[in-house]
Amino acid sequence: MSEGTKLVDTTANPAPLGLIAFGMTTVLLNLANAGLIGLTSMILAMGIFYGGIAQIFAGWMEWKKGNTFGTTAFTSYGLFWLTLVFLIIMPKWGIIGAADAGGMAAYLFIWGLFTFVMWIATLKHNRALQFVFFTLFILFWLLALKELTGSASIGIIAGWEGMICGLSAIYAGLAQVLNETYGRSVMPLG
Questions:
Q1: Cα pseudo-dihedral 53, 59, 61, 66, rounded to 10
Q2: Which of 100, 85, 106, 75 is nearest to 28 (CA)?
Q3: Assigned domain for 132 exists
Q4: Alpha carbon distances (Å) from 140 to 106, 120, 160
Q5: How far apart, in whole angstroms, are the C-alpha atoms of residue 22 and residue 135?
Q6: Between the CA of residue 132 and those of 37, 136, 159, 170, what are the distances in Å?
Q7: What angle do CA 45, 47, 52 make, to 5 degrees?
Q8: What is the pLDDT of residue 10?
Q9: What's the pLDDT tens digit per position in 70-126?
């Protein structure tokens, strides 16, 4: 009889990177949505490099671990950030015209629908992750509604709701870092 080889996964948990990248970028964009700061290169750079590329890396690392949910979530939302930035900058570069309100509403609605289904999947995960996805699908649909109606008030509400969503993702990511570092529940995830 031959002896089998057992592989042990010793790679780090990529979820905190993805959650924190998503959360920090979401908070910054929603400060702009709430009218507290302007939509500047700072937000677009975060969208490309941290919200976008860092989440794609986290998704690839989740794939290596065999985590379909993590792979799908982090890779998709990383690519969401890249598409959002390019929707903003391509018209400014003269590559193509800006999306109209109906197009942006459809874009945000479909991301909300995707997020709603991902939220259903989180019902098998911890409460912190459930909260992140619940507030995220609400955010997408509020932003879609703002695009459809042109309502500045809905945009401001979406901005504040988005900051809650982003902060919850930062919490979930940092909780995993601290809990893994200390080997106990320092910040509960539920």
A1: -170
A2: 85
A3: yes
A4: 10, 16, 13
A5: 13
A6: 23, 6, 15, 9
A7: 120
A8: 84
A9: 999 999 999 999 999 999 999 999 889 899 999 999 999 999 999 999 999 999 999
Nearest alpha-carbon partner for 156 in 41, 22, 37 = 37
Mean pLDDT, rounded, for 30-59 = 97
- Residue 53 maps to a domain: yes
| 162 has a pLDDT exceeding 90 | yes
SS3 annotation, the chain: CCCCCCCCCCCCCCHHHHHHHHHHHHHHHHHHHCCCCCCCHHHHHHHHHHHHHHHHHHHHHHHHCCCHHHHHHHHHHHHHHHHHHHHHHHHHCCCCCCCCHHHHHHHHHHHHHHHHHHHHHHCCCCHHHHHHHHHHHHHHHHHHHHHHHCCHHHHHHHHHHHHHHHHHHHHHHHHHHHHHHHCCCCCCCC
- In our burial notation (b when 16+ CB lie closer than 10 A, e otherwise), range 14-39 reads bbbbbbbbbbbbbbbbbbbbbeeeee
- Measured CA to CA in angstroms, residue 106 lies from 39, 114, 132 at distances of 21, 12, 22
Domain range for 108: 16-88+95-177
Number of domains composing the chain: 1
Classify residue 189: in a domain, yes or no: no
Q: Which residue is listed with tokens 């939220």? A: 119
Establish if 102 belongs to a structural domain. Answer: yes
